[in-house]
Design a protein that fits this description.
single chain; 439 residues; alpha/beta; eleven-stranded mixed beta sheet; five-stranded mixed beta sheet; 7 helices; 21% helix; disordered N terminus
Length: 439
């Protein structure tokens, strides 16, 4: 009886340890190309190697299914068994553009392998994947023609803005940072909504001595919280895209979220530039810049505009429409090359193209930018396709620009061990030549 109990306990313990080892698996798919910088010539073979990893250890015996699309309209797919050296997949493209390859992993039980599939403070577990690609002659990519009256349109918009006095209301808020004043701010603006957000101003330096930073938000409607640790060395203005009161109650935020569901995608609104949702948003961007420049603490020369996705779209409007903007750092700007879908490029997450939307396409604003601009693009980001971000880079008319490109990264996922390279007018630096990344 005792021996049977002993064996039963040992079996249960082994089963528990085995199940724990399964749950502890940290599966992921990683990929590399035969080139450290994944830029190819027309017709040149692109060679991808895909590996299934458990933590930092290559795993054999997993089936990989892959699907290739591209700006050339060509599709390919296949599957194969990956060993420790990985599965090799080759393709090519005959003309300038991007290839996208998506890969999934299947275990011996026929079910998708799972692992960490989101980055950030709240990781999510789900089927692992790779989403990335490569490109051919991206420096030759061009957008559709811009509207002939592009500058006249924006001059008219500026005139409409000037007719509205820049009345501002500031409410001081508690601030944890020493030597910083924090305010909720509302600034009157042309269009349907005011500029709203949070302003912080350091207090330990004389007037006209501080640089200024204006930050913009990604797509959506969400509660806008004040910054926990505002800068002690720069004026900062953080605005939301919708003129939403900074102290909005949760119910008000939810109501606005419902009212603005799928904003920017209405085909009727997008028939005329003045009726697009972007028009009011752009006016608020310009008024925010005017307001910051009116502050007596600003040094009159350093004006930085930053943002991710939709925030990057707004930052590029700022750089293109206000010559006082001196620098931008922009992650995956949204709505680049809206007309690219009419030229056969992969669509991404965007509204149908109209000529009215071309007034808001950041690739055209880039042509007018004087600011130093650093862009980040991801090969697997088809919310904001890398082709559009690259066209934006191509259109910046001066050498104070750079484009960082990440392999295997999407709009919400960063591939561990990713390869990164950086494009500048002076040349291209591969990952080995860049400062070490935490990825």
């Amino acid at each position: 009886m005792n021996n049977a109990w002993t064996h039963l306990c040992a079996a249960a313990t082994a089963l528990l340890l085995f199940s724990e080892s399964l749950s502890a698996s940290d599966f992921s798919i990683r990929s590399s190309t035969d080139k450290g910088v994944a830029i190819y010539q027309p017709g040149e073979k692109m060679v991808f190697t895909f590996r299934v990893m458990d933590g930092e250890t290559p795993v054999a015996g997993k089936t990989l299914r892959w699907f290739r699309t591209g700006d050339d309209g060509k599709t390919e797919h296949g599957e194969g068994l990956s060993d420790e050296d990985g599965l090799v997949v080759s393709t090519a493209m005959q003309s300038p553009g991007f290839v996208r390859i998506k890969v999934e992993a299947i275990g011996e039980d026929g079910k998708p392998l799972e692992g960490k599939v989101t980055s950030g403070t709240e990781p999510k577990t789900g089927p692992i994947f790779f989403d990335g690609g490569a490109c051919v002659d991206p420096d030759k990519l061009r957008a559709v023609g811009e509207p002939e009256d592009f500058d006249a349109f924006w001059k008219s918009a500026g005139s409409a803005l000037e007719r509205v006095p820049m009345d501002a209301v500031r409410k001081e808020l508690p601030c944890k940072s020493a030597n910083v004043k924090l305010y909720a701010v509302t600034v009157a603006c042309a269009g349907p909504k005011p500029v709203t957000g949070y302003l912080s101003i350091p207090t330990d330096m004389p007037p006209r001595s501080f640089p200024a930073v204006v930050t913009f938000h990604g797509y959506g409607v969400r509660k806008h919280w004040p910054p926990e640790s505002p800068s002690q060395s720069a004026i900062t203005l953080d605005i939301n895209a919708h003129g939403m009161a900074p102290d909005s109650a949760d119910a008000s935020v939810e109501k606005l979220r419902e009212e603005l569901k799928n904003y920017g995608f209405d085909p009727e609104e997008n028939k005329k530039p003045e009726t697009t949702y972007f028009y009011g948003m752009a006016l608020r961007v310009l008024r925010a810049l005017q307001y910051v420049k009116s502050l007596p603490e600003w040094n009159g020369k350093d004006l930085e505009c930053n943002g991710p996705s939709q925030g990057g779209l707004q930052a590029m409007w700022a750089a293109g429409l206000d010559p006082d903007v001196s620098s931008c750092r922009i992650w995956s700007p949204w709505c680049c090359d809206l007309g690219g879908i009419t030229l056969g490029r992969l669509r991404g997450w965007r509204s149908d193209h109209t000529r009215a939307l071309d007034y808001f396409d950041p690739v055209f604003h880039a042509k007018r930018a004087r600011a130093k601009i650093h862009l980040i693009a991801n090969f697997g980001d088809y919310t904001c396709p890398p082709s559009g971000v690259w066209i934006l880079y191509n259109n910046i008319p001066h050498p104070k620009k750079s484009l960082e490109v990440n392999q295997g990264c999407t709009h919400g996922f960063e591939m561990k061990g990713r390869r990164t390279f950086c494009i500048t007018p002076a040349g291209t630096k591969s990952q080995a030549e860049l400062p070490e990344s935490d990825g």
